[in-house]
Every structure is written in C-alpha cells, then in structure tokens.
C-alpha cells in the first residue's frame, strides 16, 4: 500500500513536487509518464523513502525494491562478487537472478568495464534476487536491447498480478503495452491518474520508408525519406503495411515520428 497526502518535496529547500496526493492499493502496473525534469524520479524517491517530504504525509506498507536511474553499482567489483555481496546483504538467490538477466558470460568482468546495458542488467538482477511487495522501477528498459526489454516487460506483467509495480517511462507505447494505470506528472504535479484505456491520443504520426513513391497510394506527405501518415490507432499501421505489400512495395522501415505523449502533455 502506498499513500502520499499533500506532499511537497524537493532538494535543498527548493520545492520540486507540489501537493502530490496518491493512493495505491491494487497490485498492478502504474506507468509514470512525464517530460524530462517533470519530477518522476523525485516522486519515486519520495515513495521509496529516500527523500523526506518538506510537508505532507507518506505511508508505505510492504517491502520496496527500488531500481534507480543512477545504477549505484560497486564499479570496482566483478559481477559475481557484486551479486554475492548483494545477496549476503539482502538475501535471495544469486543463480536465479543470473539466469533471469543472462549474466552467465559477464560474471568475471569488472562492473566498471561493462556497457550501459550490461550494467543495467546487473542492477536489475540485484532487485530480482528476492521477492518484494512493491517495485519502483525508474526507466528499467532504458539501455536494454529489444529482446531483453521485451522479456523484462513480460516478467513485469506476470509480477504485477500480485505486486504493485510503479514504472517510469518516456514512452506512451510502452505504457499502453504493459500499463494498467497512467500517472502523468507535469511540472512537479500529478496532472492525471487514470486507466491506460481512458487515454485518448488524437493521432499518431507514422513514417514509412519504402521502395516506391507512396504519394498516390496513401494520404500523407514526405519528410526527408519518410512518408508521413497520420493514424488514429496504432493497429491501423498493420492495415497500411498489408495494403502496400499487396501492391508489391517493399517496406524498409516503419517508425513512430512523434511520441504521442507530447500531445497528452500539451493538453
Ligand atoms: N539531486 C538533486 N538536486 C537538486 N535538484 C535535483 C536533484 N535531482 C533532480 N533535481 C531537479 O528536480 C527536477 C525533477 O527531476 P526528476 O529527476 O524528478 O525528473 P524526471 O521527471 O525523473 O526527469 P527525467 O525524465 O529527465 O529522468 C529537475 O528540475 C531536476 O533538475
């Protein structure tokens, strides 16, 4: 259970979070969205109990796993030593965590010499050594390769059946993919707390790079080598791709040109 009541919090006397109230009881995935500097990490720090509010009330019942933005790893240790150290400190099963994050080949490497993604895997393995009641995950898939990121998201969905997971992200697609609730933070305030299914995005801008000129086939326009089409729902992209393939056109790339979160935050 997490409860914040009229919390102000920040750093060095400067208020960053203004009058934040939040009640979370139901096990589920809550995605915290917001622009850079909006206050997502600060909110997680308050929930984690690392940052004491200037005013208001914080109540949390249950054990907390916190995966911070800054990875906070002992850089001089090799991976195996670090995980053993964490398991001695926190308890838990090192081998399970090693397998979960595919760390077998990295065990004898010094943490300082790992790539960002590899460090992220070690840092996530640390919080999956044992079970917690509440998981606070600050951009957990950032720097993970797409396969690991997808496996990780599946694991989190499974976990959220009986745990509270609060997950910050910049990506509304990721939110839609796994989130049940969205907490939108803007300028240190919670401006929206709703079901993901209630979030309406006006339109998605999709860029298509293809073997032929698409001007006469689809309503849209060129921006560099991408042909831009506007769709109301991400699933419309499949229909468009199928249509183009039927016309014998080769598709090199389909990508999201603008994060729909921008629309959400601009009202
Ligand atoms: N340790 C700190 N000391 C002073 N100010 C800080 C500190 N950490 C964050 N801030 C400030 O607090 C504000 C909110 O930062 P926070 O990290 O919570 O944002 P965020 O939404 O997580 O951003 P991002 O998406 O960039 O991670 C920013 O203006 C930031 O400069």
From TrEMBL:
Keywords: ATP-binding, Nucleotide-binding, Transport. Transmembrane segments: none annotated. SMART domains: AAA. Coiled coil: none annotated. Residues 2-212 form the ABC transporter domain. It comes from the Archaea. InterPro entries: AAA+_ATPase, ABC_transporter-like_ATP-bd, ABC_transporter_ATP-binding, P-loop_NTPase. CDD domains: ABC_DR_subfamily_A (cd03230). GO terms for molecular function: ATP binding; ATP hydrolysis activity. Gene3D superfamilies: P-loop containing nucleotide triphosphate hydrolases. The keyword Nucleotide-binding applies. Belongs to the ABC transporter superfamily. This is Heme ABC transporter. The lineage of its organism: Archaea, Thermoproteota, Thermoprotei, Sulfolobales, Sulfolobaceae.
